[in-house]
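R.M. (postdoc): so does anyone remember the format we settled on? I'll just put the structure tokens first.
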């Protein structure tokens, strides 16, 4: 990896780490407060409408953001065309969903969803205004500014949600938190990015991007629908509280899984796009990232499955303990998600969005088959089928990576097999510690300390270079903090 590109990548990973850990830490604290002020029913109501908001965000972006990042010589006409496209689509979708709100409420048999939907969908308009500035920062790998924007927006919207929950607004506290998050992002993006739209538009730009973007759009739409498929099933056939339990279990899973995806592989698309034509270099960097991703994600995700009960009790409180089996099965389904995302990112960066769309269609077909076979046996059986389908989809994706960058399948499997074994060992230790009869907060602490001790020992023994690089990184950051402190004192 060239020095300049390596420095950019290290900076991207550093600020992505700050961004993700910072956001998730803030969201976790805010979520812990809200979970004690609100009921599972409140979270259930929000979960029922979020699929429509998430789907709208995808339709507004339409895959053009990644197309802008991938295009080496993007012009002002390109940026302005996509900006106006985003705005027009967002206005159309908001009007459409505004009038569809009564039908959404009727489908779930929840009259409150009419007013909730019409307010929360305002976020679609705010989202459209900052997509181009977001792409501009991603293109130059300015993850420092992205981190500041995301953290500021998360803190601001979270505080509003907490205050409203204290004042007894119930589900509206969650609605306000969602809407204000996108409002704050819109404001901050234009403060950090010195770009303003001009009177430029070209249908030629839309047509030139469309061939690449259409497959990304198709993939994203499928992902949203299937990410919320259990919310739809639970909302239609089960109690509202069950949607709340699932939503909270899924939120905690995403807190960890999304953090790993964003930190470890989230910045790889911009990197891979810059080296897309250098196969040997591409393969070497890809494998290095895959190995480091595995040694972090497998031990943590398997450990979380083993520690689920005290974790849910401590984080969300005892009233959300029915979320435990949801959380465990969703963690299992997400076990290979960072590696799967890495494969998809690599293929997209090489212009193979058609292939990634094909992989997603195959994955969704597996999920649909599993749902059809397990629906009559209940939600837990459906989630087991979902987990199996997700793991099989990753195994399918490695076949396409082999063809694209000539990375042998046995090497791809070896890249994560040792990490998987380490993860199982740590999970077993945590599981047996769970039989100790002590309060959950102390039990969770004991499990975490034991897991961390084993993990550090393994890294020190078998991943010497990673251990040393980690120490160097921590020492450099501590030294930087000390310098700042002494500078202020002097």
């Amino acid at each position: 990896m060239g020095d300049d590109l390596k420095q950019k990548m290290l900076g991207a990973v550093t600020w992505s780490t700050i961004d993700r850990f910072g956001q998730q830490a803030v969201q976790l604290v805010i979520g812990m407060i809200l979970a004690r002020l609100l009921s599972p029913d409140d979270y259930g109501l929000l979960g029922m409408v979020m699929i429509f908001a998430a789907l709208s965000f995808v339709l507004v972006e339409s895959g053009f953001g990644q197309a802008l990042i991938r295009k080496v010589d993007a012009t002002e006409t390109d940026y302005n065309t996509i900006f106006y496209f985003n705005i027009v689509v967002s206005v159309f979708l908001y009007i459409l969903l505004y009038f569809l709100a009564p039908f959404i409420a009727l489908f779930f048999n929840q009259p409150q969803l009419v007013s909730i939907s019409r307010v929360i969908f305002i976020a679609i308009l705010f989202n459209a205004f900052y997509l181009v500035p977001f792409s501009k920062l991603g293109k130059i790998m300015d993850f420092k500014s992205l981190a500041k924007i995301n953290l500021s927006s998360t803190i601001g919207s979270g505080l509003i949600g907490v205050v409203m929950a204290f004042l007894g607004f119930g589900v509206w506290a969650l609605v306000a938190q969602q809407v204000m998050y996108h409002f704050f992002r819109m404001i901050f993006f234009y403060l950090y990015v010195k770009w303003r739209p001009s009177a430029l538009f070209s249908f030629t730009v839309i047509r030139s991007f469309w061939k690449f973007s259409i497959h990304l759009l198709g993939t994203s739409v499928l992902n949203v629908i299937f990410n919320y498929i259990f919310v739809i099933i639970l909302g239609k056939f089960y109690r509202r509280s069950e949607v709340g339990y699932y939503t909270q279990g899924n939120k905690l899973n995403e807190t960890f899984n999304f953090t790993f995806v964003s930190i470890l592989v989230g910045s790889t698309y911009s990197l891979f796009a810059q080296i897309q034509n250098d196969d040997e270099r591409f393969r070497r960097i890809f494998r290095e990232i895959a190995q480091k991703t595995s040694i972090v994600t497998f031990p943590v995700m398997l450990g979380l499955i083993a520690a689920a009960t005290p974790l849910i009790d401590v984080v969300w409180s005892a009233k959300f303990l029915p979320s435990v089996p949801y959380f465990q099965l969703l963690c299992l389904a997400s076990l290979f998600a960072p590696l799967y995302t890495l494969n998809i990112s690599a293929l997209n960066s090489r212009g193979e969005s058609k292939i990634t769309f094909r992989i997603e269609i195959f994955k969704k077909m597996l999920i649909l088959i599993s749902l059809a076979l397990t629906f009559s046996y209940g939600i837990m059986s459906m989630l087991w089928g979902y987990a199996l389908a997700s793991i099989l989809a990753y195994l399918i994706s490695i076949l396409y990576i082999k063809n694209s960058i000539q990375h042998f399948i046995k090497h791809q499997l070896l890249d994560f097999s040792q990490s998987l074994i380490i993860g199982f060992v740590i999970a077993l230790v945590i599981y047996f510690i769970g039989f100790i009869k002590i309060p959950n907060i102390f039990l969770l602490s004991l499990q975490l300390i034991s897991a961390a001790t084993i993990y550090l020992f393994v890294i020190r023994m078998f991943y010497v270079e990673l251990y040393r690089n980690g120490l160097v990184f921590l020492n450099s950051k501590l030294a930087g903090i000390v310098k700042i402190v002494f500078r202020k004192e002097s």
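R.M.: ...and that's the designed sequence above, right after the tokens. Also worth knowing: The longest helix spans residues 3-37. The chain has two domains: 1-227, 250-490.
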